[in-house]
Amino acid sequence: MTLEQRIEALEREVSELKQQARESNELVTVVQHATQAAAHDLQQIVAQQQATKKYRAAMSITVDPLV
Length: 67
Prior knowledge:
Elements: H1 3-62
């Protein structure tokens, strides 16, 4: 393999590695967005559970089941 061929092969390898890095960065971005969405969903679920607990506690105080 001549020096010129070796340089061309290395340039192709560098190009492939750059493409892989771009794809990896895109994947990281997708995972970050999915994580943020999941965290938001979890916050909504927790808030809904807390509201349900408060509602049930309020109802148990205001409603007398023996009446």
